[in-house]
Design a protein that fits this description.
heterodimer, A: mainly alpha, 43% helix, globular, B: 570 residues, alpha/beta, FAD/NAD(P)-binding domain, eight-stranded mixed β-sheet, six-stranded antiparallel β-sheet, binds flavin-adenine dinucleotide, binds iron/sulfur cluster, Gluconate_2DH_su3 (chain A), transmembrane helix (chain A), TAT_signal_bac_arc (chain A), Dehydrogenase (chain A), membrane (chain A)
Chain lengths: 252, 570
């Protein structure tokens, strides 16, 4: 890609913004800067032209996490769950961490449409979620536990770990080996995994699935009006995905 | 103090499928009807931007607000029941149309066998085929008696079908619209099942194959196979739902009013009748009494039972003594099936909720059960509902559930995975029932419904047998890797299974064996009706709503008759 204002290579971008490429190790660099998509010229030029702000990435509010460090831990963990590979971007480039941040600040994080009256008791696994904590509280605690687990195992912050070290810690959470309060680490991991997939594949309007690349990798065409004319076809139909935002533009 | 309103002829509690049908029929007959719906108004216009998996299928936009009301659950009487804090195993409806807005549209008639299951089983296999712990009973009505009402529901809803099921009960007429498109995916199933000697047919669908005007003059449009159907409303008005059919029909008469945000908390009993209902306006918090000549419970299985329980109408079922009928015979379904991983990519993201082909060779008593230790069976289908990327991340066995191998495998297999699945019938069991919870309450202080439920030996045997059959089919379809569904363990309320809850307010021939008679009229209060899948004496091997709709039409006929003559309808 040409190193100009409209389209910038990753390396070029990093150089220009003065961030050492080394900071990328572990995938934990501040998601807001790395989470751009190289194909999405508009967004990059937005970030680039800081002097002549003619628009900013509109879906990257930080609504829940106050602390960059926590946000980086979340980012690194989601990237291990859904890593960048030869198929395409991982969670960070897809803006999954922002998606999760937004969700934690809303109905999901506050369990608003769920029964949250006591008494709270542990119950059987067949009885489902019985924690007194909201998801926002579970994530807050979970992120802190990921970090303390990292410090005690490797004497390093989680986002500075090697991939295999991160995986070791996440596996410990998944296997319920990390003590947490009023919730199990396995449950927290399940939430984290599910939220990561949601962020990778929800309509980009929600702040993740940047540039619909989650859909593109998976060959899911997003919102299409009708398949009535093609559903008879034997051959697999590769269809360029469309976001619901195309509907919104129609209304302008 | 509750404010008493002006008396009406008929009040329905809830306006979903059953409430809508009762309203349309009674209002057309000149009765003044009020529908009390706890949720809000909605229509096709609300679904213009419904192609949003995250909001509708994952965050349950259209479903019940559990912060206000849920149920409690335990697997058996020794456990402590705890609230279902999040939606999972089933997706309860709320707002105009109820679950009839976000349903799939599979529209079946139960088999003639279902209605006489006890007599047929005893006759054919002897009295001890199942132990006494299974509370099997006939429904008190035969298929032939219910047939005209099935026909009425199907014509109102414009159901698309080919009528080629050799096991179906006798039909007085054909399906009102032709079957949906037989897509390449369905053809694979058709070929495989034909080769295996079965008789495949198109699944009867309420996603309509061509534009249709129903006998009430309501227009239903042609399905676009958009792939956002189950858990979504239809932006085309092509999925038959109460709000595009029976609700406008009722409104056109001028005899119908729906009061939204009206949460009914009690049925008011007065001697051997009911006087009306009490409700809370969810917006203002005010309490109202709505007097009525006839009260109809149309609030789905759970609340139909719960409202009777909190209003102390009828006798609560007690599993220790076997006494009482209210809450008895709660049934669900088991889902035998097999997943197949294919080499070729398929258009799995296209589809419609009820687009599918089925076989009935292993359903009901369509095969001999002499050598198996269960009765009944399942319809087995290949559906193409349109699968979406958040929910669908299929990976072959031994693939990790996250990380790079997971990402590759789930992306690769998303377009290469099909599932053959059965809807396994369940038989009533003495330990499976509904009652009132003594600890947890809803937002209005009313006790929650308590569900005590687990799978039975009959369920396990049926599940194992039918899973094998599904496995054979998907293998024959050319799957490279076949993964049978795992054997049943304990019923788990977390993963979605089906919203096919049944029983609790069962119908029958007398007050000793049922809550309502075959017009769904309550045995203890002649002007009280309770209608829905709660009336099923057991659950069959299909989706419930064809039968729910038929019962609602019969109930409406009963109400109209009762309004003229009074007294018991049987
Ligand atoms: C995801 C999903 C898919 C389904 N797919 C199929 C299918 O393919 N085929 C099939 O046959 N069936 C299907 N069903 C089931 C089908 O939707 C139901 O059979 C049908 O909606 C039942 O009608 P009902 O009137 O009993 O309840 P509903 O349609 O749910 O209506 C009940 C109404 O009562 C209201 N209500 C409840 N309590 C109160 C109260 N206390 N006060 C005031 N109002 C109240 C609710 O808000 C709701 O609007 C599906 C269900 C779901 C959830
Ligand atoms: S699949 Fe058909 S019936 Fe279902 S929502 Fe789409 S257009 Fe409507």
């Amino acid at each position: 890609m040409p190193d100009n204002e409209k389209g910038l290579s990753r390396r070029g971008f990093l150089k220009t913004t003065g961030i050492a490429a080394g900071a990328l190790v572990g995938g934990g660099l501040i998601g807001g800067l790395v989470g751009y998509n190289t194909k999405d010229n508009k967004q990059i030029s937005n970030v680039m032209t800081s002097g002549e702000q003619h628009g900013v990435a509109s879906s990257r509010a930080r609504m829940f996490f106050t602390n960059d460090k926590d946000f980086m831990i979340l980012s690194a963990a989601t990237e291990r769950i859904f890593p960048k590979d030869d198929l395409g971007p991982g969670a960070i480039e897809l803006d999954v961490p922002y998606f999760i941040d937004h969700q934690l600040a809303g109905n999901y994080g506050n369990n608003s449409k769920e029964y949250m009256q006591g008494p709270f008791k542990a119950g059987q696994s067949t009885q489902g979620y019985q924690s007194r904590l909201t998801r926002a509280e579970i994530f807050q605690q979970g992120i802190a536990k990921i970090e303390s687990e990292s410090q005690s195992r490797f004497k390093k912050g989680f986002s500075d770990l090697e991939n295999n070290q991160m995986d070791e810690i996440l596996t410990a959470f998944q296997k319920d080996e990390v003590p947490m309060t009023a919730v199990s680490s396995a449950f927290f991991f399940k939430l984290l995994r599910q939220a990561t997939l949601e962020g990778a594949y929800a309509d980009p309007l929600y702040g993740g699935n940047n540039n619909m690349d989650g859909w593109r990798m998976k060959n899911f065409p997003g919102h299409q009006g009708s398949y009535a004319q093609v559903i008879d076809k034997e051959a697999f139909q590769k269809i360029e995905p469309k976001s619901l935002s195309s509907m919104q533009n129609m209304q302008h | 103090m509750a404010k008493t309103l002006e008396k009406v002829d008929v009040v329905t509690v809830g306006v979903g499928w059953t409430g809508g049908i009762i309203a349309a029929e009674c209002a057309k007959a000149g009765l003044k009807v009020i529908g009390l719906e706890r949720g809000k108004e909605r229509s096709t216009a609300d679904f213009a931007q419904v192609h949003d998996e995250f909001r509708y299928a994952i965050r349950y936009e259209l479903m019940q607000d559990l912060s206000k009301e849920t149920i409690t659950f335990r697997n058996n009487r020794k456990q402590e029941a705890l609230p279902m804090r999040q939606m999972g195993s089933f997706l309860l409806g709320e707002n105009l149309g109820g679950a009839g807005t976000h349903w799939n549209g599979h529209t079946w008639r139960f088999l003639p066998y279902d209605f006489e299951i006890k007599s047929i089983t005893d006759k054919k296999y002897g009295k001890n085929k199942l132990s006494d712990d299974y509370l099997l009973q006939d429904w008190g009505i035969t298929y032939d008696e219910l047939e005209p009402y099935y026909d009425k529901f199907e014509k109102m809803a414009g159901i698309s079908g080919d009528g080629k099921n050799p096991f179906q009960g006798k039909r007085s007429d054909k399906y009102p619209t032709p079957a949906m498109k037989k897509t390449p995916i369905l053809q694979k199933f058709e070929k495989a099942t034909t080769d295996l000697g079965y008789s495949p047919f198109m699944l009867p669908s309420a996603n309509i194959s061509e534009p249709y005007k129903n006998p009430d003059g309501e227009q239903i449009n042609a399905c676009q196979y958009c792939g956002f159907c189950e858990r979504f409303g239809c932006e085309y008005g092509a999925k038959t739902s109460p709000e595009i059919t029976v609700v406008p029909t009722a409104r056109k008469t001028g005899n119908y009013e729906i009061r939204f945000h009206a949460n009914v908390v009690e049925i008011l009993k007065e001697g051997n009748k009911v006087a009306g209902v009490k409700y809370v306006d969810r917006v203002s918090g005010e309490e109202f009494i709505q007097p009525a000549e006839v009260v109809v419970l149309t609030s789905y299985v759970m609340n139909n039972a719960r409202l009777l329980m909190v209003s102390k109408i009828g006798e609560q079922y007690d599993p220790t003594t076997g006494r009482g009928t209210l809450g008895k015979n709660y049934c669900y379904q088991v889902l035998p099936g097999a997943t197949g991983f294919f080499d070729e990519q398929m258009n799995v993201f296209m589809g419609a909720g009820a687009l599918g082909m089925s076989i009935d060779d292993w359903n009901g008593d369509n095969f001999d059960h002499s050598d198996v230790d269960f009765i009944h069976g399942a319809s087995i289908s290949m559906t193409q509902p349109g699968v979406r990327p958040i929910q669908m991340n299929p990976v072959p066995p031994d693939t990790p559930t996250w990380g790079s191998d997971f990402k590759k495998a789930s992306i690769h297999n998303y377009t290469r995975t099909l599932n053959v699945g059965g809807q396994g019938a369940t038989m009533p069991y003495k330990e499976n029932y509904m009652s009132l919870d003594s600890v947890y309450k809803d937002a209005y202080g009313v006790p929650l419904l308590q569900l005590t439920y687990n799978f039975t030996e009959q369920d396990r045997a049926l599940h194992t047998y039918l899973t094998k059959k599904s496995e054979e089919i998907i293998k024959k379809m050319g799957a490279k890797t076949v993964v049978p569904g795992s054997p049943l363990t304990d019923y788990d309320i977390v993963p979605y299974q089906t919203t096919h809850n049944t029983g609790g307010t069962i119908m029958g021939t007398n007050p000793e064996n049922s809550v309502v008679n075959t017009y769904l009229q309550h045995w203890d209060a002649e002007n009280l009706f309770a209608v829905g899948a709660g009336n099923f004496a057991h659950n069959g091997g299909y989706n419930p709503n064809g039968t729910v709709g038929a019962l609602a039409y019969r109930c409406a006929e009963g109400i109209i008759k009762y309004s003229k003559n009074g007294g018991s309808l049987v």
